[in-house]
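Hi W.,

Here's what went into the run:
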Amino acid sequence: MNTLRVPVVEKILNANDQLAEQNRRRLDQAGTFGINLMASPGAGKTSVILQTIRRLAGSTRIGVIEGDTAPVTIDADRVISAGMPAVQINTGGDCHLDAVMIANGLNQIAVDQLDLIIVENVGNLICPAAFQLGTHTNVLIASIPEGDDKPYKYPNIYRGIDVLILNKIDLLPYVRFDMDYFRKGVEILNPGVKVFPVSCASGEGFDPWLDWLRAKLSKE
Amino acid sequence: MNTLRVPVVEKILNANDQLAEQNRRRLDQAGTFGINLMASPGAGKTSVILQTIRRLAGSTRIGVIEGDTAPVTIDADRVISAGMPAVQINTGGDCHLDAVMIANGLNQIAVDQLDLIIVENVGNLICPAAFQLGTHTNVLIASIPEGDDKPYKYPNIYRGIDVLILNKIDLLPYVRFDMDYFRKGVEILNPGVKVFPVSCASGEGFDPWLDWLRAKLSKE
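Here's what came out:
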């Protein structure tokens, strides 16, 4: 059974990866930098997006593709209220976005007019790690109240990221969180990965993340 | 394509449900009450289990089946340190436990000697909702810092639960959380569901949950 199963899974992944390559070419042709933003439910994906929009709105045209497992437009509505275009993709219960859904999302947004497109993946630390979307960079948001052991428990997603945003640092005085233990877990899985501690509630810590992002955008 | 796909998925679910039925009979014969405990990563599943063990240890024999996506025994070790038996199931990257894994777990634990078995599902609000395990009741833990919009965003898991434990109420003064909005979302999806607000950090709120659990155990 297993010898049969492995090639089938590989074939599916390859079809996804091929479409991801097409998405990437489309972004490159438009000169648009693409971010795949992943996190656990409630870690603050939409809040980080809104803070980023607020601080870059004067200089950068940003679009958002919102992945949700249900037909709710709460997050997309918040982005549109912040003055940027957003497309909502309902995965119909699936636990991740894939390259087909992103291709559909790109059809519904004026990519050519954007400098940056942020894909807010489904809130989940497992499934999104396995699917290429065609974006240029993988960003994970962890948050202080989730606990310091998450890199040890969800290693696959920590291995595949380029940037880690550590949100809700304003809650550090109120919860047990061993920063050294957390950082050690991250470093073992992904040596040298960029880590940006931030608070969406206070606005603290966003400058280094925005500097990193501006440097990436200037290369596109 | 879809007409082919639907029956195949149904067949898999039926096989799982059949094995779930066997698991249920096994628990019933042993006189053991089974809980399927689900939550987002970091909502406090293991902490709620440890608080429950601490308060019931004198009167109730409790075993735990720990589901993890990676071969880490952090949670199982904490249960064993609290003096109760625990079995760790590594899903090998899968985003949920299924009835086969529970059957294997039950083979590794002395079910006959237990009054209560708690299955700690994989940290995820999407996949675990779709798979019966054979336990008697589905309990979801939500937590204050995850945000008040989670019932609206992950409706399937809220629909299928018997009990909702709302953890980390000690953080209410420090985060924005509209309790009425949250409760309204829960009530629309699952009218009359039991809700127990608790804090594992302070120990607050555990008596009503334990009263509910003792009443269930006395019926077994």
